[in-house]
Amino acid sequence: PEAVRDIHREYVEAGADVITACSFRTTPRAFAKAGKTAKEAEEATRLAVRLAQEAIRSVHGSTLLRQGFGGQAGSPRTGHLVAGCLAPLEDCYRPDLAPDSGTCLAEHETQARIFAEAGADLILAETFGSIREAVAALRAGRKTGLPVWISLIPGPGPTLLDGSAWPEAVRAVAAERPDAILANCFPAPDGMELVPDLASTRIPFGLYANSSAKAGATWKPGDRIDPKPYLGQARAWIGAGAGIIGGCCGTSPGHILAFRSDLPLDP
To answer: Residue 265: left (phi > 0), alpha (psi -120 to 50), or beta?
Structure first.
């Protein structure tokens, strides 16, 4: 827990507005594969949200005011938002393993409810390579009353990992009216080819790439695009209308610090 809290703190200090809880694999399904119970999974999910909240308070206290996703103007805020990470039930790189729609909806509802009870400000349903599961996760998140952001993981070229055309995938999730649509875990040089379809939805959109520096690459540990060239890519996304940017696999607080120092972001 101390390590997770410290990592969150580094991102808060770098200037991130949204801190994503470390809950990518704290589902009953994942825990069962490790011989653990649904109760242990729930405890881990609640702990993940609490650690993000504690990291924010350790930097900024709890007396600032903020208006944004998850709060009304003038309500007591920490100045930052905690997103509950709602991830694919199986391997995010294997959308073919996703359960049927009914199972996806039921299991995502359980996780989303825990986020809401634990005090998350919004739900970030992220890294979805299956249209079917992405829609189920969105609907599950909506049932909590919290804002829901949906993030799709593109495959090589303008496709989703399940083989669907990228425009089809974006239209499918846009029809559910999420609070934001994003793309994540793609090589930064591929970002601009994803933007037109995201922008066409007229829903707030954003991108957070991995650290692969080569277009069309599959991310591997050790890939590294430095903050400066990544920032160059992000400038183009912002110029095309993106309002939410960040970093996925392999990026660091240094990338967030570069955004905060250079880009005309709305605080």
So the answer is: beta
